[in-house]
Hints:
It is built from 8 helices and 15 strands. The chain has helices at residues 19-27, 29-32, 117-127, 129-150, 172-180, 182-185, 280-288, 291-307, and strands at residues 8-15, 42-48, 55-61, 67-78, 82-87, 93-102, 105-114, 154-158, 161-168, 195-201, 208-214, 220-231, 235-243, 256-265, 268-277. The strands form 2 sheets. An 8-stranded antiparallel sheet has the order 8-9-15-14-13-12-11-10. Strands 1-7-6-5-4-3-2 form a 7-stranded antiparallel sheet. The two termini are 44 Å apart.
Amino acid sequence: MDDISKRSLSISRTFDASIEMVWQLLTTPEYIKEWWGPNGFTNTIEVMDVTIGGRWEFLMHGPDGTDFENAYIYREIIPLKRITIDHIKEPKFSITINLSNEGEKTRIEWINIFETIPSLQEAIRAFNVDQGLVQNIERFKHYSNNFKIMKQTNFAVDKNKLSVTREFDAAPSLVWRAWTEAELLDQWWAPKPWQSKTKHMDFKEGGSRLYAMVGPEGEEHWGYADYNGIVVDKQFSGTDSFCDQDGVINASLPAATFKVEFDAIADRTMVTMVTTYASENEVKQIIEMGMKEGLSMAFENLDTVLANM
Length: 309
């Protein structure tokens, strides 16, 4: 009976990153090229079609200048759970990467299975694949830590203005849709376990949105946005207020004007949101109400929505 363990290499690690982020780093060409392979190696990706039967072809550049051609076929893809790829050049082997949640962290179980015991032994002798696997997952750890910092939502206060910037792994046209289509907006606008519920939304100049933030006990906090300027895929602006379920403005809570801009960065999008309040005290009040924490969590939701669009 074939003992697969004798012709395989495996390693497991837990990373301080969401499973959605780990999935992005595994399936996005501009990210995976930065960490794939042993220490000192870089990659030029020629094709990366992350579909069952799709090809992933790339050149791996060694620290001594030697190039290594690589070609894989995607055999199994279960989003946010598992990827299996087959290396179709010599030496032939498969890689299965399993993902699982550990609280807010993600555990990776990585298994390389070779065709035969001798082929594994030769790969260890010729290419040090056992050491390479350890180095590869350590490179992933380093890159994911840096990526997490990059993905943080940045807040800046200047007197009565609050500026928020965040980069997203999608083209501006997709990010724009997620901000301007009610059915998509409701999927991410509220921080978990709260939910966003749009009563009506007419996204046009002179239009408006009436929506509620619905808590786990059914409690509702209503908001009203007017849209007064729209440049498709580029920016929109308007006013934002607290209100009741009929859209009657609550003048006792801070109201603001806002402008949201979408800037392309390669295949990604930088979103900048500048909100202007009547006074510095109102900015302080809105922050004390949990605006920073809530928006940061909502943007994590948006990462997931964009990954599934």
